[in-house]
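Q: What changes when flavin-adenine dinucleotide is included in the input?
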Amino acid sequence: MQKKKMQRAVVIEQTKLGEGIFSLWLSAPETAAAACAGQFVSLYCNNETRLLPRPISICEIDRAKGAIRLVYRVAGAGTSEFSGLLPGDTLDLMGPLGNGFPLKEAEGRRVLLIGGGIGIPPMLETAREISGDVMITAGYRDALFLTEELGGAGRLYIATEDGSAGTKGTVLDAIRENGLEADVIFACGPKPMLAAVKAYAVEKGIRCWISLEERMACGIGACLACVTGTVGTDEHTGVHNSRICREGPVFAAEEVQI
Ligand SMILES: Cc1cc2nc3c(=O)[nH]c(=O)nc-3n(C[C@H](O)[C@H](O)[C@H](O)COP(=O)(O)OP(=O)(O)OC[C@H]3O[C@@H](n4cnc5c(N)ncnc54)[C@H](O)[C@@H]3O)c2cc1C
Ligand code: FES
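A: The predicted holo structure follows.
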């Protein structure tokens, strides 16, 4: 197993993007140098009563500055602590972790990126690392975020539950309404959305990779807290399971049972 080193990251900037949604730029040169789109980091709390790291996807990578951007929603005690970080504050992180999206599969193909809710942030770096025309469908429940950056990285199609922006409905409603056609789909978002995207890809014969989320503990493949059901058998456990933190979080849609 590849050894991951703990790094001390320094907060460069933190901004509030919407109710409970924050953007955090961290100076983390080793992570920025090694990271690719679709990977995540494990962030440690400074409050030592919260032992387990919190997995957060990499939203942007600035390799020249040795910095990464994370965009997260406050969900509980850990992310609430992160939201109070100020420039100059430090925190431990491990990363980059996981496999990331298979960008080679996008080369010369019509690519459709689909993000739902807090699965939208990793789509920004993914869009930027794909050369050529990229379509991005982003589904929001309430407040919009990252729309300017996403619009600059590809052709952006928005879906909102209440119809306040873009298509009223789901990301699939936006895809159908706009007549989007693709050869390859990369998606990240809540499980019901990913299940619907997988079914859509099967129906249309589109190759599809999805980024899964599961509660994690170690984040590096040691504890099996994050397994997901797979079609094939895993070489580590010999059963129909894969560790999302290690073999994932990105899987070919046909490989996983969702
Ligand atoms: C690969 C991956 C990438 C993620 N990327 C993002 C992102 O870019 N932005 C974002 O807002 N959120 C992301 N999440 C979800 C994020 O990890 C959780 O919201 C966060 O861990 C909640 O921590 P908490 O202390 O605030 O909440 P609490 O509920 O207090 O957390 C308690 C414990 O459960 C774990 N936990 C709780 N919810 C989740 C969850 N959904 N996934 C994994 N562990 C969880 C926590 O890490 C912690 O150890 C990602 C999760 C995974 C697995
Ligand atoms: S979180 Fe421990 S194996 Fe994935």
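Observations recorded in class: The chain has six helices and 16 strands.
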